[in-house]
Structures are given as structure tokens and as C-alpha cells.
Amino acid sequence: MSKPKYLAEMLADPADRRHGTVTGYSYGCRCRRCREARAAARRDARDAEDERYGQPAARKRRTQRWYESMAASGKASVCPICGRYTLRACGMHARCEKEK
User: Is the Cβ–Cβ distance between 10 and 27 less than 8 Å?
Assistant: First the structure.
């Protein structure tokens, strides 16, 4: 069986046992229970990683300070359309370039 078929089965039966599981989410179900199960699994994985290294692991989210330091070194610029930082060589986000 394939994921689309499993998803169709799940959507047809709200009482399906796969609802509220990470497996259900991986099949493509975005019901509240499946989203909550995935969020809990991700949270548990982050907590396990934090516990393993003894401190919160460095998150790979780019912060305003990161973009400012990149701009200071010439590796980022401010998009003239939206005013947010971008790393693209042309100096604009792709979506802003399309709107131009």
C-alpha cells in the first residue's frame, strides 16, 4: 500500500487507530491529533538532545543578530522591496523579485 491510500483510509474513518500518531502525520493527515502527536515527538527529540549534551542544543534558527553580523561582513543585504535581510547575491528575495 502507499501513503495516499493510507491517508484516504484515515480520512474516511475518523476513528482510525492511526489518528493521533506520528505515522498518521507522516501519511499526510493534518488533523489536530496527528499534529499534536508530531509536535510532542519533536519536543521529546529536542529534550533528549538537550539532555544528552547537558545544555540546550544550539538551534539552527537565524536570528536578527545573525543577519546583522552577516550584513556587516557583506554577506547579506536588505531587500529593497520588503526591507528584510537576504543572502541572495542580487539583493532581493525570489518572491520580491517576482513582484517587481
Answer: yes
pLDDT tens-digit series, residues 20-46 = 999 999 999 999 999 999 999 999 998
**Predicted TM-score (pTM) of this structure:** 0.53
Rounded CA gap, 9 and 14, in Å?
A: 9
Same domain? 84 vs 43: no
Based on the structure, what is the number of domains in the chain?
A: 2
Run of H or E including 85? strand 85-86
DSSP H helices, 1-100, are: 3-12, 22-27, 32-53, 64-72, 94-99
Same domain for 16 and 47? Answer: yes
State the average pLDDT for the chain: 86
CA distance 36 to 22: 9
